[in-house]
Structures are given as C-alpha cells and as structure tokens.
Specification:
single chain, 273 residues, mainly beta, YmcC-like fold, 15-stranded antiparallel beta sheet, 3 helices, 15 strands, 11% helix, globular
C-alpha cells in the first residue's frame, strides 16, 4: 500500500505534500506495530522494585492472644477443597502433621511483564523452611518516582489484608508529609462472616510519615521512614504501621485488621537475580 502511494505521489506535482503524508503513515504503522508491553507501565525505571529482585519476609499472625503460623496441605496428588488447603497453628510448637507443611516466609519477587497492564508484576511465594514454594499468587506494585503502592499478600488467611491500608509511599519522604487515597472493592472481595457488603465497598485511606529512625534488621541497620496508615470503610477502621527504606522498600509492615487480628511482616533477606 505504501509503495504504491510513493509511486503515485512521485509522478504528481504535490511531492512535498506526499512526502509529509508518507511519514505520517509510517508513524501510524509503527505505532500499531508496537507490542502491548511497550504501551503499558514498565519496571525498567524502578529504584526499589527492580525486575527479578526478591524480598523475603518473616511473618507473625497475632489473634486471640495467640501467635500463629500458616500451614498448607502438601499432598499434590490429592485435591482438597480450598478452605481445607490452609490452616492455622501455634507458631512456637506447630503440631507434626504429615500432610500439612508450615509456611515460614513469604517471598515477593518482581517479575517480567505487567499486572492488569497498569502495574509492575509481582509474585508472592509462600515458602517452607527449605525455601520451597507451597503456594503462590500474582499481583502488582506501582513505583513512579518516590510514589509506591504495593498490593499485600492476599492468599487464604492473608486476604483479610484487603480491608486494611495498602502499603504506600507518597510523593515526598519528608517527616510530617500526609496524603490520601481511595480504593473501591467489588463483592468478589467478600469474606463470608468476616467482611460482607452489597454492591461496592469504598476504602478511604489516609497516610502520614510520623518520624524517621534507624532500626536493626536481618539485612543490617537501615534508615527508615515510619508511615502510619488508616483505612475507613463500612466495615470499620483498620490501621497499618510501615517502615520504609529508599533502597530496600518496606522493611516492616504491621497490619491491624478488621477481624481484630494483627499481621506483622519483617524483612529477612533481599536478593537480585
């Protein structure tokens, strides 16, 4: 089509106009030839959530005065209902069960590609003591400049985090800086007997950097900004206290949830593949 147009225009008196039109057609053709990934949010300029970087977190679940750990059904030859695949047990001395394996860490890995064509793709792996993944899920993270919005783990018992403030960083890391956000959930996010509603659930989120400090962690002593988050919805009020470092991201995430539980994540290791 373009070759024929060139021949026709070369024989006309409107060569200048034709050349201009030709360049426009070439530009349009090149735009439509781009791969979908080139048109979506990319991870190439991320400073924290770089492609193929891994963040390993230890976690604790506090509920009804107990400190708990998750277990996953490990017999892959037998299909079990999803509500029986996961269970909770006391963290200090989990019962010995041949078909259930404790989850000791959660690994956040930044993958290649995008999530919903709008976010960097991340994968959560729920891993045992031998660093083997027992279950996993995919979700997204947004990192634009200083601004960060991370979707927390939401598999099984961690789905309760859907109704707490998502870990976020605003446009500034100055102590005292505040910002607001709003998220809307559909009925697909319901949790029977724990979080139920009709139509849409609106989460009004507010955040403030309350202070900064050095804290001791398994990856060394790091400088952190402490971010206090609040979520208000028809389900009630929930809170988050996050420790954020500009190089390693969220060092600690302490969620106070709508069911009265508390889930604490603490960084254990960071790797770059």
């Amino acid at each position: 089509m373009i070759t024929a147009l060139v021949n026709k225009l070369t024989n006309s008196k409107s060569i200048a106009f034709g050349i201009g039109l030709l360049f426009c057609l070439l530009f349009i053709q090149d735009s439509f030839a781009q791969s979908p990934d080139s048109l979506v949010y990319a991870t190439s300029d991320n400073k924290v959530f770089k492609k193929f970087r891994q963040f390993f977190y230890r976690y604790q679940i506090f509920k009804d005065k107990d400190t708990l750990i998750c277990k996953v059904y490990n017999n892959r030859e037998v299909l079990v209902p999803y509500d029986l695949k996961w269970k909770l047990d006391k963290r200090k001395k989990p019962a010995e069960e041949a078909e259930y394996t404790p989850i000791y860490q959660i690994a956040l890995s930044v993958s290649e590609g995008s999530f919903l064509r709008q976010q960097s793709l991340v994968r959560y792996d729920y891993i045992n003591r031998g660093i083997r993944s027992l279950d996993s899920e995919q979700t997204g993270v947004i990192e634009i400049g200083k601004r960060v919005v991370l979707n927390p783990p939401r598999q099984s018992f961690f789905k309760i985090l859907e109704f707490s403030p998502s870990p976020q960083v605003g446009d500034s890391l100055k102590v005292g800086f505040e910002w607001n956000d709003r998220q809307v959930l559909t009925e697909d996010a319901k949790m029977p007997s724990l979080a139920e509603w009709t139509g849409e659930l609106t989460k009004d989120l507010s955040y403030k950097i309350t202070r900064s400090e050095y804290i001791h962690t398994n990856i060394g002593t790091v400088f952190c900004y402490i971010i206090a988050g609040t979520c208000i919805s028809s389900l009630g009020e929930t809170k988050l206290i996050a420790h954020y470092n500009e190089d390693f991201g969220f060092i600690k995430m302490d969620f106070f949830n709508v069911d009265g539980s508390r889930i604490l994540f603490e960084i254990n290791n960071v790797k770059q593949k």
